[in-house]
Amino acid sequence: MDGNAAVIGVIVIALSILIHRFQAAQPELNAGKFNSAERSTVSAALAHALPGSVFFGPHPVFVESIQSYWAMQERDIVPQCIVRPRTAEEAATAVTILKRDYDERTSHSESPLLLAVRSGGHSPIPGAANINGGIVIDLRLLNNVVTSDDRSSVAIGTGARWLDVSNTLDRMGLAVAGGRNSAVGVGGLTLG
């Protein structure tokens, strides 16, 4: 694993923070039925560019993602779609499409589509890793833990959980300073 996945993770999270600053009040969606909101042109563009990595409700991957949040208040939020990139390149493609849509909307004084980024989904704050009616980038598949040949450093995917990291390093007799709860995502804990 190269450093691109980590850089992409930081870019995606920074973009999410930027868009959250423009966040306006969103009407509550019916979370119980896992029906995602009407598909926008950007969600259609994501689905076209990333076949097999973009999911809409009530697809089983969409439902599993929503139900796997640690906090119940995050489970009550229903996004428009969930993007689950399998590679750093797919994450970069998603960011490019979302940035293009953001630029287009804001150049016409329109409200940007809301975005949330999920690493482990452990935050108790509603909207921290999920967004009502927006796009969620779920980074949990970017979870590689790779040690350098000399075992002096480790490249950790932003979607890894601390359990993944500990299990890999324990087998090698190595340790890491990280989260106390093994279910917490590396990306969220690292960036706060």
What does this 3D model show about the protein?
By secondary structure, this protein is α/β, with parallel strands linked by helices. 39% of the residues lie in helices and 10% in strands. It is built from seven helices and six strands, in the order ααβααβαββββαα. The longest helix has 20 residues, at 88-107. Residues 20-33 have low confidence and may be disordered.
Distance between the termini: 23 Å
Q: How large a portion of the residues is in β-strands, by DSSP E?
A: 5-15%
Radius of gyration: 17 Å
What's the helical proportion of residues? 25-40%
Secondary structure topology:
Blueprint: H1 4-21, H2 41-49, E1 54-55, H3 60-67, H4 72-75, E2 81-83, H5 88-107, E3 115-118, E4 135-138, E5 145-147, E6 154-156, H6 162-170, H7 186-191
Parallel strand pairs: 2-4, 3-4
Antiparallel strand pairs: 1-2, 5-6
Q: What are the key terms here?
A:
192 residues, alpha/beta, 4-stranded mixed beta sheet, 7 helices, 39% helix, 10% strand, globular
